[in-house]
Every structure is written in C-alpha cells, then in structure tokens.
Design goal:
The complex is a heterodimer of chains A (156) and B (288). Chain A has 156 residues and is an all-alpha fold. Chain A contains two helices and no strands. In chain A, α1 packs antiparallel against α2. In chain B, α4 packs across α5, α7 packs across α8 and α9 runs antiparallel to α10. Classes of the chains: A mainly alpha (156), B mainly alpha (288).
Chain lengths: 156, 288
C-alpha cells in the first residue's frame, strides 16, 4: 500500500504507451477505417446510380418498344388501306372493262342485226316484187312500182 | 499455496506483499526479503511485479495493435483486424459522445487506457496461486531464494501506485489542456466559479481545488478499490482449498461464480476509467 517510485514508473510507462498508440496505432487504423467507410459509401452511391440508370434504360426501352409497336400498327393499317384501295381499284377497273366489253359486244350485235335487217329488207323487197310479179302475172313496170315497194320494205 | 504450514492470515499477507526492489536503509539497492524490509525502503523502491506486469501487458497491447495497424487495409478486413477495429470503433464512439473538442491525443489516450487497464484487470482471472507459485519455484530453483520470501503480486491494478500513476498522468493532461486551451480563463475558474464575486474568492478556490483534486483521487481509488476487493475475495476463496474436501469443492464453485461476475467488473472498471478520463479532459477543453 505504500506509495513509492512505482508510481512514477507507471506514469512513465503510461506516457510511453499513449505516445506509441498515438504515433503508430491510432492514425493507421482510423485512416484505414475512414477509407473503407468512404469506399463503401462510394460503392453504395455507384449502386444507386446504376439502379437509376437501369430504370431509365428500362423506361427508354419500353418507350421505344411502344413506339415501334405503334409504328408497326400504323404501317399495317396503311398497308391494309392500300390493299383495299388496290382491290377496289381493280374491281372498278374490271367492272368498267366488263361494261365496255359488254357494250362493244352489244354494239356489234346491233350492227349485225342492222346489217341483217338491211339485208333482209333488201331481200324482202326483191321477194315482194317477185311475189307481186307472180301475182299479177303481168309485167309491171318494175321501176314504176319500185318506190312503193321500197316504202313498204322500210316499214318492216 | 506457499506452504502447508501457513495460517490463513499469513497466506493472505503473503499474497498482498509486492516483490520490491529498492534502496535499503543502509544505502545499498536490492530486493526486499520481508515485508519489514520492503516498508523500510520507504519511497525509493519499485514494485517489480506490478511494474513488470503492467509494462509487459502494455507492450502486449502495443504489439497487438501495432500488428493490426501495420496490416490495416481499407479493403476487406480479416478476423483479427475486425476485432481490433471493433475495439477502436467502440472507443472512438465513446470519445465522440462525450468529447466535443478536437484533439489528436484523446482517441489514442482513451484506447490505451481502456485496453491496458482491461488487460491488467484481466490478470485477476488467473487463479491467485498460479503465477506466485511459479515465481516461487523459479526463485527457489534458479535464484536460490527462500520460497517464503518470494513475493509476487500479479494484478497491477491492485497496486495503488499503478492506478495512481495513471490517474496522475490524466491529471497532468487535464491541467495542461486547461491552461493550453483556456489560458488565464482556466485560472479564473478557480477563483470566480461558482460564485462570481470577489468576496467569495477563498470559498471558490477551496471548492474548485477540492473538485480538481477529487478527480485523480476518484480515478485512482475507484479502480484500485474495485480490483483490490475483487482480488481479496479471490484470495479468501482460495484459503478454502486448504480447509478440507467439501469446503474446497464449495470454494471451487465460489471461485467460478466470482470469476464470471468479475469478467463484468474488470471490463466495467476499464470502461469507467476511460470514460471519466475523456469526460475530465473534455471539461478542460470546454468553458462552463
């Protein structure tokens, strides 16, 4: 229990150990810990940033996808319209062509009919005259009655 | 156990006697061979066992932490570095909580105190007879000493010199920083605080000086008292071992229980010494 030089020995040892700790232990360790703390904070920051970037990219991608889909739909619609148009046009063309052909055929038929009629008429006139000649058994002046017979034939 | 012929009183006294190296009254230096010789040496004596263990443990502390500091990386820490960093984190957290100034000393100081005091207290958990008995055998066979005169006290913090030495170190720092940071303001606190009037100067001076001196005393005596009492109880329990089988077994359980409880006490005392040091130094840094 007596106080003696041990006290000062202990004080000196205390001073030396605190000095050693202050010089060689504390700064190195706290520095390393601080650095690691910063590193971790940076890492977390980077992760956050990457997360945000990813989200942005995903948004962008989905937007682009939507745009592309819309465009595709528009193109498809346009194509459909165009196809309908072409079909309609073709139908119209076919109809007019058909009509044209029909009318041409009709005109030809009419022409033929007229021709045949003319022919018939001419034939009928001759026949009528011949018939009348026969009936009258006389030589009627063909030229004198010609006008009459032609008129008759025109009424056919 | 020193020998079978000791009475419990002798046994306890033997355990409480330091190994002393000092100046004999006749002027020669040497080891004290009896408590009487030791006390005759007066002031010019060293407690070789206390100082040896305390310096040895201090070196152990420096060595362990130096290894960690050398290997310290900001990358992934290993298990050892992790443990050391945990202690540093704990100490630096405590310092930050109660010390608001800026000082390069306070962190290392708190760390040294905490770990060193903890290690010194830890010696208390080694069964009380192991190291003294080893020292006796060593002294008897290698140094040719009388085993009854080989004294060996293992726990440095049960020596009031050791705790007072540390407390005085802290006290010196308190005054140094008080004067450095506050200059004459620090001295004014002694005469004009708590009653700021010239008539109260003697009262103030008395109160402040008592308050100032109470700090190192309480630091030193709290640690010493706790550890000394704890050690004493270990020694008392150890006396049971020579009192028959039944008491011996009972003593074994008592020692186990007290040792487990003591784990708390040694940590707590180291922590309290550190926290109070930080608080006292922070009071030296701040104005009232």
């Amino acid at each position: 229990m007596n106080i003696n030089m041990t006290l000062f020995g202990q004080m000196a040892a205390f001073a030396v150990f605190v000095w050693f700790c202050m010089k060689f232990v504390w700064p190195a360790l706290t520095h390393a810990m601080e650095e690691r703390k910063n590193k971790i904070a940076d890492g977390l920051d980077a992760a956050d940033r990457a997360m945000r970037d990813l989200e942005l990219a995903q948004n962008k991608a989905s937007e682009q996808l939507k745009d592309a889909k819309q465009e595709a739909a528009a193109l498809l619609e346009q194509a459909n319209k165009r196809a309908n148009l072409i079909v309609e046009e073709a139908k119209d063309k076919a109809r007019t062509e058909g009509e044209r052909l029909k009318s041409a055929a009709q005109a030809e038929i009419e022409q033929e009919v007229n021709r045949v009629r003319e022919e018939l008429r001419a034939k009928v006139a001759t026949l009528a005259v011949a018939g009348a000649e026969k009936i009258l058994e006389a030589s009627i002046d063909e030229n004198a009655n010609r006008e009459l017979v032609d008129k008759l034939a025109a009424q056919l | 156990m020193a020998s079978g012929t000791q009475t419990p009183t002798e046994y306890i006294q033997h355990h409480l006697q330091n190994l002393v190296y000092g100046k004999h009254p006749d002027g020669t230096w040497g080891f004290a061979h009896s408590p009487q010789e030791a006390s005759d040496m007066g002031f010019w004596a060293f407690h070789v066992d206390s100082l040896g263990w305390s310096i040895g443990l201090g070196i152990l502390f420096c060595w362990l932490f130096r290894i960690a500091a050398k290997k310290a990386t900001s990358g992934v820490p290993g298990g050892f570095q992790n443990a050391i960093e945990y202690i540093i984190e704990f100490v630096s957290g405590t310092v930050k909580d109660s010390f608001h100034g800026h000082s390069k000393l306070i962190g290392p100081l708190a760390l040294s105190i905490f770990v060193w005091v903890f290690l010194m207290n830890l010696m208390d958990l080694i069964p009380v007879d192991v190291l003294p008995y080893a020292a006796q055998l060593f002294g008897q066979h290698f140094l040719g000493m009388d085993p009854h005169h080989v004294y060996f006290k293992v726990v440095p913090t049960t020596d009031v010199n050791v705790t007072a030495g540390m407390a005085l170190g802290v006290f010196a720092l308190m005054i140094f920083y008080g004067l450095k940071i506050k200059g004459t303001g620090y001295l004014k606190e002694f005469v004009l605080h708590p009653f700021n009037h010239w008539a109260f100067i003697p009262v103030n001076l008395f109160m402040e000086v008592v308050g100032l001196l109470a700090k190192p005393f309480s630091l030193a005596l709290r640690l010493f008292g706790n550890m000394f009492a704890g050690e004493m109880i270990f020694i008392l329990i150890a006396t049971m071992y020579s009192a028959g089988l039944l008491l011996g077994i009972f003593g074994g359980f008592l020692q186990l229980g007290w040792a487990i409880f003591h784990i708390l006490i040694i940590t707590l005392q180291a922590f309290i010494f550190m926290v109070l040091t930080v608080v006292y130094l922070s009071m030296s840094h701040e104005d009232h």
